[in-house]
Amino acid sequence: MKIEVFEITSKEDKIYQELLEQYKTNPELQGFLNKFIIPEELVMMGDFRLITMLNEAIDWNFVKVYLVKDVDNDTFVWVIGKFVNDGKIDMYPLLKEQSKELQLAIRKTLIEKGLMKELNEKHLCSGIFWILSDNNDLSEFILLMFDIPCDSNGVPNNTHSVELNSKSGNSYNHKRIWDSEIKNKSGPYNKKEYNYYPRGRVEISNNKAVIYLNPHINKPVFIDSIKKEFGLSACNISEVRVKVDGSKHYKCFLDWNDKA
After folding, report:
1. Under 8 Å between Cβ of 204 and 126
2. Within a 10 A sphere around the Cβ of 27, how many other Cβ atoms?
3. Is the separation of the CB atoms in 89 and 82 below 8 Å?
4. How far is CA 174 from the centre of its chain?
5. 213: which residues sit within 8 A by CB, 6+ positions away?
6. What pLDDT score does 179 carry?
7. pLDDT computed for residue 130 by the predictor
8. Which pLDDT does position 85 carry in this prediction?
9. Any idea of the CA torsion for 34, 35, 36, 37, to the nearest 10 degrees?
10. Residue 225 CB contacts under 8 Å (≥ 6 apart), including other chains
11. Which domain holds residue 169?
12. Cα–Cα distance between 42 and 156 in angstroms, integer?
């Protein structure tokens, strides 16, 4: 499988014109690209998910943009943005469904090109987590996680450090983990019950991830941290969804305060 990476320097580049030609005949891809046109202020803040070159506001001296192409199938598969000042990389898959073979080929090529070092540091994981903070605004938080390295179907690779104890046998139970690993050991949080802090879990299947979490932590600062620590990057998984769960199952001290 042959993968090529092209740097785009202007909207007039030949390879960019090829992308335009491709999505003109592909309504789904056209809609996908148009959905992620980025305002100038977000680009300058360094917060973007897709550079499409459809936006005149992009400063080509500030951001380098790359198109990743599956040569064998003559298909563009990823768009990558790299900030010149700090080397930060962000990327987004143009195709929602990517085979494992294609993902591995893309990974290998991007590592060789120096475009994946940052995103290659964390293995894909499922598992559970808490956001530890005693502040009502959850500032100065710690992400406490018990992760389970797994494949893109969620099958554990048996390198987890704590025995799996959920009913299904392939994940963790919040209460059991808290009681065995936190409450029964010395530390700053062992006086709290398992349901005191906001919490959630990451489930993976069919090359897709779902983050279940308490409504109070449905914010970019927490979601970005969860994605990073659980390896939920585009090089590991094709899709990440967030499901907010306000049921009793995920209630925390902030919900109790709301009732007070």
Report:
1. yes
2. 9
3. yes
4. 22
5. 198, 199, 200, 222, 223, 226, 242, 243, 244, 245, 250
6. 92
7. 96
8. 62
9. 50
10. 143
11. 125-259
12. 37
At 257, list the tokens. 């305060």
Structure tokens at 14: 């030949």
- Judged by DSSP in three states, 51 sits in coil
User: Are 191 and 204 part of one and the same domain?
Assistant: yes
**One pLDDT digit (tens) per residue for the chain, 260 residues:** 788 888 877 667 787 677 767 666 665 555 544 443 333 333 333 333 433 333 444 455 556 777 788 888 888 777 776 766 656 666 666 666 666 667 767 777 877 777 765 444 568 899 999 999 999 999 888 999 999 989 888 988 876 667 888 877 778 999 999 998 888 887 788 899 999 999 999 999 998 999 999 999 999 999 999 998 899 987 788 889 999 999 988 999 999 865 54
Residues 188 and 225 in one domain: yes
For the record, the structure tokens of 140 come out as 């100065």
Which of 120, 148, 177 delimits the end of a domain? 120
Q: Are residues 92 and 141 in the same domain?
A: no
Beta bridge partners of 244: 213
Three-class SS state of 229: helix
Domain-terminating residue out of 120, 139, 174 = 120
Cα 82 from Cα 89, distance rounded (Å): 5
Tally of domains within the chain: 2
Counting every residue written for the chain, the total comes to 260
pLDDT the model gives residue 195: 95
- Look up residue 101 and give its amino acid: E
Do 104 and 66 belong together in one domain? yes
221 backbone dihedrals φ, ψ, rounded to 5°: -60, -35
Here the tokens at position 87 are: 């080397």
User: How far, in Å, CA of 3 to CA of 112, rounded?
Assistant: 11
pLDDT of residue 3: 86
